[in-house]
Specification:
The protein has a five-stranded antiparallel sheet, covered by helices on one side. It has one domain. Helices cover about 25% and strands about 25% of the residues. By secondary structure, it is of the alpha+beta class.
């Protein structure tokens, strides 16, 4: 692993273009972004099991929760 490289997921907001980094896998990162920025809180069950979150969706290339998306393969962003 490269020195100084952050391990985690870049999450994008489709409505306003915000980008945020989470030290989480992509499925959990989209739920975290939704909970932190859209509801102002944390839904613990959503972090532990994203498919149980009411706004979580899985797609061929990534995940979404509300207006937040993350790619399964982070190299798509590069």
């Amino acid at each position: 692993m490269e020195s100084g490289k952050r391990v985690g997921t870049v999450v994008l907001n489709l409505v306003d273009g915000r980008e945020r980094f989470f030290a989480l896998p992509p499925d959990k990162a989209v739920v975290a972004a939704f909970e932190v920025f859209d509801t102002g809180g944390y839904l613990l069950d959503g972090f532990l099991n994203p498919p149980k979150h009411p706004n979580f969706q899985e797609y061929h290339l990534g995940y979404s929760c509300g207006d937040w998306i993350a790619y399964k393969d982070s190299s798509i962003l590069q």
